[in-house]
């Protein structure tokens, strides 16, 4: 066999080793993705491309995550989304519509927290007369708006930290 | 309304099959190139060899499809690739030895051991339906581990080869029981620590930011330290001793998240190593060969000189960036080129590029093990997967570090690559356990019935979430 063939085989073999390395890394790259957000109404329309576009890819770059703000919320000056700023779900964005958002550990909640310090149905954030309110649903550890424990439904201005268990949420435009 | 859900896990069996074919291609290419390099023609049995390897690999892949459909898709292909590379290198070194009149037939025996290992790994996956079963055997595993470690000291059974009494010979088949003891100890440590981790983590004074354990909780770590020193003294095996102690400290850290255990472990280990280096000549010689490797007096000293180490270094140096190519180097000039120094042999013939790829295989394997530990829900599984992954990582570090003269040379085997039946079988069993745990870790939770959640308004809460909430204390 010629010298050239041998050299090509030798380098080709090394390339093959690295192809396996890179393919394996490509497979495990999926682990880096965190949670994903799907819009229930969108999902019913069953457009796979739209579902893929709604995936919040990396928690460190929440601003790149595409969010779909409903027209009703966008037309007013009120907040358009609920953002988790601290805790295990940091970077998660829940677009706000016209219905209330239930927060807690129960799988049926809108924002499901995997947090031993949050109750199954912990708090509810709901709109009334053009303003968003937070209401504690009798949780063990309480809900705090700007470090004040919530006793009755309390208005939440945009940008105010709301603490639920180990997570901190805030409303953003 | 939007919902937040974790990323859906793909079972990954199709991906695994693709990677497996790539790994098999690497194995067969290694074998063919080793044949071309040594005899200038493709080995005549390359087709049979390829088919045999493919049968074993596809066989265990089918077992996974049957019994562990959500197992990690990367672990098996990486293992097959490493095993194939190792087999080809042993085959190639056999040729070099044969040219010098030594007929060893290492490759034949390693091939048989590979088949035995794969069958055993498949048996583990089939028979062990749930890794939590192993927790019942926590203390049985401890006794089994201790018996295995002490077995080579039984007169008439143990054999002393090259100064280390780590061999047992039964009916003509020799094996190193310590290789199996490491699995038993991983099971014991996981079972023990999952029960006792709160005491080990929370009680005790705080000094300089380190949460120190109470003196009476130090008992187990001192016992394990004593046992590993005993291995070092009685069986003269530095590597196994380091492996057991490192495993325990790593699993303590995994269980408690207390840095103090790592500090205490390192201090104990350094103290033990310094005392051992002073008290026992063979350990002292290892340190001397490491620190003054290029001293002619140390190089020529026999036994215990640095000749083997330095020859391995020169071999890797002659390989350079891209290596000499399969069969073109002279790895056989290094003693034990097929077992202890197979890393140097690979470094010589595949170069830095190839060796780094192999090291990355080990890194990926360890990462998958650790990822499994993060993903699995029960504490025992977390500790076991973390411990098993750490075994592979530590063993690779100790061997490669020893051969490349980062740490003193110890007598451990490179997992999956080096010649040695017990090591191969034990590491395949570790892979089987990791696959079993990763199946549990990646299996999606049973899904909720969608009819329970209306589209608008307050969702109805399903009834299965009545776990108590932890009360926050001292947060505010």
UniProtKB/TrEMBL annotation, chain A:
What are the TM regions of this chain, as residue ranges?
Answer: 12-33
UniProt KW keywords: Membrane, Phosphoprotein, Transmembrane, Transmembrane helix
Q: Where is the FHA domain?
A: 101-150
Looking at the record, which segments are called Disordered?
Answer: 56-81
Coiled-coil boundaries: none
Cross-referenced SMART domains: FHA
Q: What is this protein called?
A: Phosphopeptide-binding protein
Q: Which organism is it from?
A: Cellulomonas terrae
Q: What is the lineage of its organism?
A: Bacteria, Bacillati, Actinomycetota, Actinomycetes, Micrococcales
TrEMBL record, chain B:
Q: Read off the InterPro entries from this record.
A: FtsW/RodA (IPR001182)
Could you confirm whether the keyword Transmembrane appears in this record?
yes
Protein's membrane topology: Multi-pass membrane protein
- Pfam families assigned to the protein according to its UniProt record, in alphabetical order: FTSW_RODA_SPOVE (PF01098)
Q: Name one GO cellular component term.
A: plasma membrane
Its Gene Ontology molecular function terms? lipid-linked peptidoglycan transporter activity
Determine the domain of life of the protein's source. Bacteria
For this UniProt record, give its keywords in alphabetical order, as a comma-separated list: Cell cycle, Cell division, Cell shape, Membrane, Transmembrane, Transmembrane helix
Task: Give me the segments passing through the membrane.
Answer: 17-34, 46-64, 71-91, 111-128, 137-158, 178-195, 216-234, 240-256, 263-285, 341-362, 383-404, 416-435
Q: Where is this region: Disordered?
A: 444-476
The compartments listed are: Membrane
Q: Which GO terms describe its biological process?
A: cell division; regulation of cell shape
Q: Please indicate if the UniProt record lists Protein biosynthesis as a keyword.
A: no
The protein depicted here goes by the name Cell division protein
- Native organism: Cellulomonas terrae
